[in-house]
Design goal:
α1 (28-45) packs parallel to α2 (62-70) and α5 (142-159) runs parallel beside α7 (223-242). By secondary structure, this protein is of the alpha/beta class. α1 (28-45) links the parallel β2 (18-24) and β3 (50-56). The chain has an eight-stranded mixed β-sheet with strand order 1-8-6-7-5-2-3-4, with helices on both faces. Helices cover 41% and strands 18% of the residues.
Amino acid sequence: MPRPTATAPDPPAPKEGLSLIVLACNEAENVAPVLEELLGWLREHEPAAELLFVDDGSDDGTADLARQALEGTDSKVLRHARNRGIGAAIKTGTEAARHPWVTFMPADGQIEPAAIGTLRATAARDGCPLVLSVYELRSDGGLRKTLSWGVRLLIRVLHGVTLRCEGPYLFRRELFDADLLASDSFFLNFEFPIRVLRAGHEVSVAQIRCRPRIGGASKTANIKTVFKVAADLLRLRIRLFRE
């Protein structure tokens, strides 16, 4: 069962290296400021980390802007020719990662770089191979809270685990088996932790801050996504039974 924790301080982080995946789809207006902030934080706190920018089929020049912003850094820009989904982007980044620890962030500026330090410090303190995150002081409407509660209840009923995961997570790369993980959509962020919990691994939960987007609109925060997650949870239960 995940162990909730208060917001952790910045590192000491695990001594093993970190691969940071930045996920983007049509984020041209956000790429430069987000990467500038991230690179500044990494230079100070995680100088040995690599940055893997995954452009999930953008048609607004996002990848080119990322290449410009990342020039001269320990980084790669990976691009999907078409939009394949957040899960596919995480798979692409994780496959390219060379360090034992992996985490990810959206390119919309909502997650401050300090969240990386919080996840790393929690992993170092608790000795867990997976650290999930929840948002502190986030003002969610009543409908969104109700839907989130319903999804958590469905996970408990169908899969027998307690899962609360709202933001990026940090994981050891060997836990992530892309061939086993069926989803290429946002649902991967449920499927992967569920599989880790069902396998009996210790999992921690850290609180991080969520800021307003720099620009643009969310591509996942809608009721259709929630109902799709519910259907995917049922399909995952069937797959796990067959496995």
